[in-house]
Every structure is written in structure tokens, then in C-alpha cells.
Amino acid sequence: MEKHHQSVVELLQQLNTALAQNAKSPVSGCGLSLFQERLLLHLLEWKDGPVYATDLHRESGLSRATISARLKDLRQNGYLELLSDGTDDRRKRIVLTAKTLRLEPVLREDILRCQRQLFSGISLQQSETMKLVLERMLCNLRENQEE
Length: 147
What we know:
Blueprint: H1 2-24, H2 34-45, H3 53-60, H4 64-76, E1 80-84, E2 92-96, H5 98-118, H6 124-146
Antiparallel strand pairs: 1-2
Helix pairs in contact: 2-5, 3-4
């Protein structure tokens, strides 16, 4: 059993590495990485309300430093603006630019294409089982961190 678990962990590490490499590589003609595209799409889901870096941190589980660095890159490239909250100068509201709004269909297609590639040959039932197993593993790790 331990040897099987070890091979599963090794596969998860390989998958994580491959996903990280894909996330950094430009996937569309606009030069955005998959990670940046996913972040912009996430922000597009919230485009009608105020969004802050703390919201992204809480939703994604990514570190504040990672979120901050990605937002900075996107701001420098004209995809979003960081506006003062008004009540706290440290807290910046994330506002998408017209450039990002125009790109929404391209971003959605890129993400769908990547998902189709990742899940090629995997049935819906297998995908649902995988999701449950991965959620359990993540929960196990988080419980262990809290102890």
C-alpha cells in the first residue's frame, strides 16, 4: 500500500510541476500566462462588485505575496487598476480595465481549451471521483497543519 501511495504522490508532484509550467507559459496572443488568465477570469466573475486582494487570497488559498505580485504584473500591463479604498489607504480596490473586458471571450476560450486538454480521456464520473479524493487530501493536509 505504501508503494502505491508513494507513486500517487509522485504523480501529483509531476502534475503540479506540469501545471505550474503551463501556468507560466503564454497561452494566448495577448501574452498572458494561464495563471494570469485564470486570475482575470476570476475577477471578471466579480466585476459588478468591489474586489480586494484579501478576497482573492481568501478564495484561492494563495499567499498574499503571490496575489500581490500577480496583481502588480497585471496592473503594469494595463489589465487592471488598483484604486484607494477611501477608508484605508493600504486597502486597494481592484478594477478591471476596458482592455480586460474586451479580452473576456479569448480568456474563456483559452481556459476551456486547457481544461479540455487536461481532462481528455477522463469520464465525468472519474473527474467527480478525482475531485472528491483531491478535496480529501487537501483537507488532510490542512488538518495536519492546524495540529
